[in-house]
Design goal:
The complex is a heterodimer. Chain A is α+β, with helices and mostly antiparallel strands. Chain A has 15 helices and 27 strands. Chain A folds into four domains: about 200 residues, ATPase, nucleotide binding domain (Nucleotidyltransferase, domain 5, 2-Layer Sandwich); about 70 residues, Actin, Chain A, domain 4, CATH 3.90.640.10; about 110 residues, Substrate Binding Domain Of DNAk, Chain A, domain 1 (Sandwich); about 90 residues, Substrate Binding Domain Of Dnak, Chain:A, Domain 2, CATH 1.20.1270.10. In chain A, strands 1, 2, 3, 4, 11 and 12 form a six-stranded mixed β-sheet that branches. Chain A has a five-stranded mixed β-sheet with strand order 18-13-14-15-19, sandwiched between helices. In chain A, strands 21-20-23-24 form a four-stranded antiparallel β-sheet, with no helix packed on it. In chain A, strand 14 and strand 15 form a beta hairpin. Chain B is mostly helical. Chain B folds into two domains: about 60 residues, DnaJ domain (Helix Hairpins, Orthogonal Bundle), CATH 1.10.287.110; about 80 residues, Up-down Bundle (Monooxygenase), CATH 1.20.1280.20. Chain B has seven helices and no strands. In chain B, helix 4 packs parallel to helix 6. The N and C termini of chain B lie far apart (about 45 Å). At the A-B interface, helix 7, helix 9, strand 19, strand 22 and helix 12 of A face helix 2, helix 3 and helix 7 of B.
Chain lengths: ~625, ~170
């Protein structure tokens, strides 16, 4: 149903109506923003011509901060206040961070997500990420000298619900309208597939700074179908740096404790690792408080250190193939994404496993942002006929705790999203009037081994004998991969509902408070902005309804048509005014009033889709 | 075309067990191209909600149609012979014997080759059962008999999952 499609098929909307949308790769080590310009996706540079923004935020005190390269350069001097690789903390509690002792930060172990003490006070990983996102948003708005319609933000395919929710919260905090969260390997496949006009089964091996993803995709005529995905959301280039740093310290018989030394040796390890991609041996040198560290190492030595980590990625690849019931021989090509795939030992290990040289013809740092930009342009409604469709999956199974701490799986991993599934449960005690629901994510049998996402209670169940109540629990995962859970006692009709975000995410109130305090919106007059947004929405809705009526008005009875016309008239009467609430109400009324019409149009669209296929087959 | 049409009607496929996987996938993609929420990302909440409902429904039908076991069970239910697996656990003694022998073989297997050999044997039984279910449903219109065979197929499918878990352990 193209109820709101403004242009005729084959035509792009009028340039004045083009909505400016970007793709953002919010990475562990660095972040990028890309947009479509003259029909081509491009990464946008900052004023100094750099497209890569290091994912580093340094708090200077009194609300001042440095973001990106400037922050990165100071990290060894001011490690406690310079937050790097914050993505590894998103949606995580302190106990989840295996390497916390090696990191120079002052963590706050709060219930839910951890916090970081800086000289500017306690910062949540969501706030730190929002600084990076806002910087990219300003860069994009400066480039186009226009407000952003929205953004597609990429996340690792293996991110769980808490990590996805945290990312979406960070985007909201940065004042971005999130068109969609999409998975990084899928974004890479879009950029890659469209560039190479590929068809068939492809593996995307994405080893970034802090996360590893492997996705198998089937590409056919613009449809990008994810067959299976897997990975490790705590495995990336950082881990190679740490292994190398530990080794170098052991070689030199040194131990370190200060925040400065911890950061300095990690910086030196990363530099040595990068140098070894082009050289066969290097010196790892780091100035430390008690005398400089200098250790020589060869590529062979490094590869011995790297092997356990590379092997972990290969196990994940094999598991995904097994999940998909496919063999390495079925895979037509392997796409390498992420800066860490520059390591020669990674390329050769992946090449050996698949029996073919991996494809590296697109810049592994940029390809994710480029794919996101293509999808953002399409979601904004700019690509009238350049239809691509993503059919992505959920990476980890979702379930409920049952008796004895066991997990009852409701939605299996690799189910195509959006997806909803219901399961019936019952009471186990006579007269039981409440039921506690514990939502978990993971593949293990025991609740204790899975990630806890949320707990909530269904109360007010009328007293019945054990086993008589019928409690239907519905899990729903939307197109962003985010979960909502509903519970209903079907005999009495008692209901409870939760959008899963309490234990790890921020509440809407917290976000609203942060937004008010945030620099991201401080310069804008919020009220004027809200009015303008309402007016744009009203115009869009009015134009869309008009074009829907032109295309499919024949579906309506005369009185139905009249009712919609009346709603359109009502909207145009308030549209030009200053009354924000009145405009919103009229838009809402029009939306409601066209709901049945929209459903009819969708049915017609489906019938046409099927007929189209039939004709093609004959 | 309505949300509560059955899976076969929704995908415009004949109501039979025998299906071509390629056409199921093709219909699935054609339908998702029309209804996926991404098609309405720039539109209002109402369109989004409708699209979400449709996309969820299309994915549900796809999951059921592409999986022979789920498809057979669904077809039996549509034809008035629901599986009722929880209340209907009685199986022929010979079938249960075979199951026990297989489970013992899996427990005693020591290497990947042995487990894979067992898997091959079970896979052949699975295919034979599927074929029989196809005959019962598509040729003899005997949903009740098919329903009993679907229950047997459920045992075998579950056993193959155990075999796969074992293989995963042995290979890692």
């Amino acid at each position: 149903m193209a109820l709101l499609q403004i242009s005729e098929p084959g035509q792009s909307p009028d340039p004045h109506q083009r909505r400016f949308a970007v793709g953002i790769d919010l990475g562990t080590t660095h972040s990028l923003v890309a947009a479509m310009r003259n029909g081509v996706a491009e990464c946008l540079p900052d004023a100094a011509g750099r497209v890569i923004l290091p994912s580093a935020v340094r708090y200077l005190g009194e609300g001042r901060r440095q973001i990106g390269q400037e922050a990165l350069e100071q990290q060894a001097q001011d490690p406690e206040n310079t937050i790097v690789s914050v993505k590894r903390f998103m949606g995580r509690a302190l106990r989840d961070i295996a390497e916390r002792k090696q990191l120079p930060y002052h963590f706050e172990d709060s219930e839910g997500m951890l916090g970081l003490h800086t000289r500017d006070g306690l910062k949540s990983p969501v706030e730190v990420s929002a600084e990076i996102l806002a910087t990219l948003r300003f860069r994009a708005e400066d480039t186009f000298n226009d407000d952003l319609f929205g953004a597609v933000i990429t996340v690792p395919a293996y991110f769980d619900d808490a990590q996805r929710q945290a990312t979406k919260d960070a985007a909201k905090l940065a004042g971005l309208n999130v068109l969609r969260l999409i998975n990084e390997p899928t974004a890479a496949a879009i950029a890659y597939g469209l560039d190479n006009a590929s068809e068939g089964l492809y593996a995307v091996y994405d080893l970034g700074g802090g996360t590893f993803d492997i996705s198998l995709l089937r590409l056919s005529r613009g449809v990008f179908e994810v067959v299976a995905t897997g990975g490790d959301s705590a495995l990336g280039g950082d881990d190679f740096d740490r292994a190398l740093a530990d080794w170098a310290l052991a070689q030199a018989g040194r131990s370190i404790s200060s925040a400065h030394d911890k950061r300095a040796v990690l910086v030196a390890a990363r530099a040595a690792k990068e140098a070894l991609s082009n050289q066969s041996n290097v010196w790892l040198r780091s100035p430390l408080d008690e005398g400089d560290l200098a250790v020589e190492l060869t590529r062979e030595q490094f590869e011995v250190l790297a092997k356990p980590l590379v092997d972990r990625t290969l196990s994940a690849v094999k598991r995904v193939l097994r999940d998909a019931k496919l063999k390495v021989g079925d895979v037509q090509g392997t796409v390498m994404v992420g800066g860490s795939t520059r390591m020669p030992c990674v390329q050769s290990a992946v090449g050996d496993l698949f029996g073919q040289t991996p494809l590296t013809n697109l810049n592994p740092d940029e390809v994710v942002a480029l794919g996101a930009a293509i999808q953002a342009n399409q979601l904004a409604g700019n690509a009238a006929n350049g239809d691509i469709l993503l059919l992505d999956v959920i990476p980890l199974s979702l379930g409920l705790e049952t008796m004895g701490g066991l997990v009852e799986r409701i939605i299996e991993r690799n189910a195509t999203i959006p997806v909803a599934k219901a399961q019936d449960f019952t009471t186990f005690k006579d007269g039981q009037t409440a039921m506690a629901l514990h939502v978990v994510q993971g593949e293990r049998e025991l609740v204790a081994d899975c990630r806890s996402l949320a707990r909530f209670e269904l109360r007010g169940i009328p007293p019945m004998v054990a086993g008589a109540a019928r409690i239907r629990v519905t899990f729903q995962v939307d197109a962003d991969g985010l979960l909502s859970v509903f519970a209903k006692e079907t005999v009495s009709g008692v209901e409870a509902k939760i959008v899963v975000k309490p234990s790890y995410g921020l509440s809407d109130d917290q976000i609203a408070t942060m937004l008010r305090d945030s620099f991201a919106t401080a310069e804008t007059d919020m009220k004027a902005r809200a009015l303008r947004e309402s007016q744009v929405e009203a115009e869009r809705m009015r134009l869309a309804t008009r074009s829907a009526l032109e295309a499919d008005g024949d579906l309506l009875a005369p009185d139905e048509l009249e009712a919609i016309e009346a709603l359109l008239t009502a909207l145009s009467q308030v549209e030009a005014g200053e009354d924000n609430a009145a405009i919103d109400t009229a838009v809402e009324a029009l939306a409601k009033g066209t709901e049945a019409f929209a459903a009819e149009r969708m049915n017609r669209g489906i019938r046409q889709a099927l007929t189209g296929r039939n004709v093609e087959q004959i | 075309m309505k949300l509560d049409d059955d899976d076969f009607a929704l995908f415009d496929l004949p109501r039979s067990f025998a299906q071509d996987r390629a056409s199921i996938d093709q219909r699935w993609k054609a339908l998702q191209s029309e209804v996926h929420p991404d098609r309405f990302a720039a539109e209002g909440a109402v369109s989004q909600r409708l699209a979400m409902q449709w996309a969820v429904r299309v994915n549900e039908a796809h999951r059921r149609l592409r999986d022979p076991l789920a498809r057979a069970a669904y077809l039996c239910e549509l034809l008035g012979a629901p599986i009722n697996a929880e209340n209907n656990t009685a199986m022929p003694a010979s079938f249960l014997m075979e199951q026990m022998e297989w489970r013992e073989a899996l427990d005693e297997a020591t290497g990947v080759a042995e487990v894979e050999a067992l898997d091959d044997e079970v896979l052949q039984r699975e295919h034979a059962l599927q074929q029989h279910i196809g005959v019962l449903l598509d040729e003899q219109n005997d949903a009740a008999a098919a329903s009993a065979e679907v229950r047997a197929l459920m045992f075998i499918t579950r056993f193959r999952e155990d075999i796969n878990r074992r293989l995963e352990q042995l290979e890692s």
